[in-house]
Amino acid sequence: MEWNKEKKIDYKYIFTIPNILSYIRIILILPFVVLFLREKYIGAAMCIIASGLSDCVDGFLARKLNQQTELGKMLDPVADKLTLFAVGVCLAIVEHVFIPIIIILALKDLLMLVGASVMLRKKITPCGSEWYGKLGTVCFYFTVAGIVVFDLILGFENVRPLFLILLSLTAVIMVYSLIRYSMIFRKTMKNAKAEQLGKSAD
Please, what are the domains in the chain? Predict the structure, then answer.
């Protein structure tokens, strides 16, 4: 967190437009869960659509407005993970086909959390979200919105095979993103170790 000369919090750093969008995504989790569990699926769908749209534009706005911050790099994936987990658990309650996706998602996020913790302990800034991570998130949102609208709201059970295919694709993208992030982690740690050895030699 940044501080000015008078030791006051820099609100411009905390409340950038991309960061505000991440805060909104986190706040939207609670009404989504409440509405979904009360079977008010239209309201729940609106929450998840709003969350998904904000997720699609926050990175673009951060670059366009030159508001990329270390806080934002952490907030964005945290908002994604909390939202995905909450949505996945809610759907798994009514659609058991989501359970394997939730397991994959939980393992992926747990491993990424461990990796980020290791990097922070070594004072290395974790990388921000990459396109493949975003692709998995967008695919998940699209699938969830489709299931809520066409299956739970409209009752079109014949569309389930399509969404099973989309769920499988989402799982594949999540596994792929985990592999790519693990490669970045290994490369970053290797470079940090080489840099440390170079400083020691000097």
Answer: 11-201 (1.20.120)
pTM: 0.67
As a whole number of angstroms, the distance between CA 9 and CA 2 comes to 7
Q: pLDDT-derived band of residue 31, with 50, 70 and 90 as boundaries? A: very high
Query: pLDDT tens digits for 41-69?
Result: 888 888 888 887 887 777 777 677 777 77
Q: Using only C-alpha atoms, what is the Rg of the chain?
A: 19
Q: How many angstroms separate the first and last alpha carbons of the chain?
A: 32
What pLDDT is attached to residue 1?
47
Here the tokens at position 105 are 């998602």
CA angle 148, 152, 157 (to 5 degrees): 110
